[in-house]
Amino acid sequence: MEPRHPSTSSDGGQDPVVLVVEDEPSIANMLRVGLSAEGFHVETAESGWDALRTLESGPVDLVVLDVMLPGLDGFETCRRLRDGGWAVPVLMLTVRRRVEDRVRGLELGADDYLTKPFAFDELVARIRALLRRAGRLQGGGTLRAGPVELDPETHRVTRDGVEIRLTPTEFQLLETLLRHPERVFHREALLHRVWGYRSEGDTNVVDVHISHLRRKLGDRDRQLIRTVHGVGYALDPEAP
Fold this sequence. Notes:
Layout: E1 17-21, H1 25-37, E2 41-45, H2 48-57, E3 62-66, H3 74-83, E4 90-94, H4 99-107, E5 112-115, H5 120-133, E6 143-145, E7 148-151, E8 156-159, E9 162-164, H6 168-179, E10 185-186, H7 187-195, H8 204-217, E11 225-228, E12 232-235
Parallel strand pairs: 1-2, 1-3, 3-4, 4-5
Antiparallel strand pairs: 6-7, 7-8, 8-9, 10-12, 11-12
Helix pairs in contact: 2-3, 6-7, 6-8
């Protein structure tokens, strides 16, 4: 097994390659679609053995590794990955909440650990943090739209240089819109990304938080965050 090192990862001019190792088709597809929309090139594997073969066949920048896999489980896959010399960041996913399981994963070489169910945006944030730490993600700086700036690293939001205090949910909502300027988000999509709902919930919670966000950002004329009637919301990067 030829080891892969950071030098074999995709370069800064390409989308980061994320390998999702998940044997549940619905979850694997959700992650593939969602992460692709976030600007990642996504490869999938249904087992630990498939994951190791994928790592041998080409560059991978990060592995999202489920613990509960058939045959070779996530713990053993992580151990073999590290023993094989791969330095790629590994984010483990599991339904297990015991501290001992998290410690075991980290001791075997995982870089981070996220328990199911999780908010999709938290997964994306952790992936981006691991990629930045490994030097495999470019352009992770301040997000801007008109007079509004958001720094994902410091969780600081300003308008015309004046700091605005947002709740964690409001911050995630604004960051989601800023990362996809002009994209129209259905309310259900925002529920899934920000609140982690897996099915249709009460979309009124989205409307309420958008209203709070507009008020705090001084977006009284609704020019920064536009309402697309009957659909949802979109952010205008050129708003005054």
